[in-house]
Predict the 3D structure of the following.
Amino acid sequence: MGPDIVMGSRVRMHLRLELHDGTVVEDTFATGQPLEFTLGDGTLVRGLELGLLGLRPGDEQTLTLAPEQAYGTRDPALVVEVPRAAFPEGVEPKPGLVMTFDLGEVKDVPGLLLAVGEESVTVDLNHPLAGKPIIYHVQVLSVSVPEDETA
């Protein structure tokens, strides 16, 4: 059957993330391209990782995660005003456009442009899935035990 998933396990699996309204956010079942990662490396948010602990190859599981377990709640402080002059020349900011922003030490943060004024642009830097419950379905294909536990 294979080893249980623990922190540090190398995992190969299919996953489907969807919203309660049926909107599919990500689906490796459909693409045929399984996700491969080391549990705990930041590929998945913490709540998604915790749902995998103890699963083995061949296991399937469907979980509904509250926003606090998945991508967090929306933070109104992350809706900010950015001066229009800060946008690169030749880029016309428009509501609905998603752009990346460098926030000091954190680079390439996606932001959704909400409103465009003459002097500034309102940008939402919350994760697009923040505040939303997520339905999380996985099928574990393979698990490799962390090297320090093979002895």
In short: The chain has a mean pLDDT of 92.
